[in-house]
Design goal:
2 domains
């Protein structure tokens, strides 16, 4: 089987699990299979957890973070789909990479305003928001502090976008 076929087969099995089990059991079955998958499939497999929409997924991300080599936006997409909150974002920012990058991407998805034209149909449909929605000034101050420790272009760009979102500044 080629990699693409393996990934498609996993997606089909995961969809079947989600259709035939409650969310807790579906999460247990799918996350267990992801835990035992070859690392080269991790990035693709995590997409199946988006539909679980449960904070347990955030705990799983923390546990699995040592396996993450490249942090693509799909990790933030998953976190935003899983009842992401500011308390968790602060924790992940303190823990550093890869969790801090996932937190920034999740914050970007959770603070986006408007039509979300550059985001996935899933993000447009669920329109995630931070569950505990702190004041914009608190988020902005913490993100500016984070830039002191991690100021690479990707981080600067993400922080600026989040700040623009929370203060509803059009760019």
């Amino acid at each position: 089987m080629h990699d693409r076929e393996i990934i498609e087969d996993f997606y089909l099995r995961s969809e079947n699990v989600q259709n035939n089990f409650d969310k807790d059991e579906a999460f247990r079955i799918i996350s267990s299979e992801i835990d035992s998958c070859d690392d080269r499939f991790l990035y693709e497999y995590i997409g199946t957890l988006n539909y679980i929409r449960n904070e347990k997924v955030l705990d799983w991300i923390e546990t699995s973070s040592k396996r993450i080599i490249n942090v693509g936006q799909n990790w933030g997409h998953l976190a935003a789909s899983s009842q992401f909150n500011w308390k968790r974002a602060e924790k992940w920012l303190l823990q550093g990479r890869p969790l801090s990058l996932i937190a920034l991407d999740a914050l970007m998805f959770c603070t986006t305003i408007g039509e979300r034209l550059n985001q996935s149909p899933w993000m447009r449909q669920i329109q995630p928001k931070l569950i505990d929605n702190p004041k914009p000034e608190i988020i902005a101050r913490r993100l500016q502090d984070y830039l002191i420790v991690d100021s690479v272009p990707r981080t600067k760009s993400s922080v600026q976008r989040i700040i623009n979102n929370i203060f509803e500044i059009d760019t």
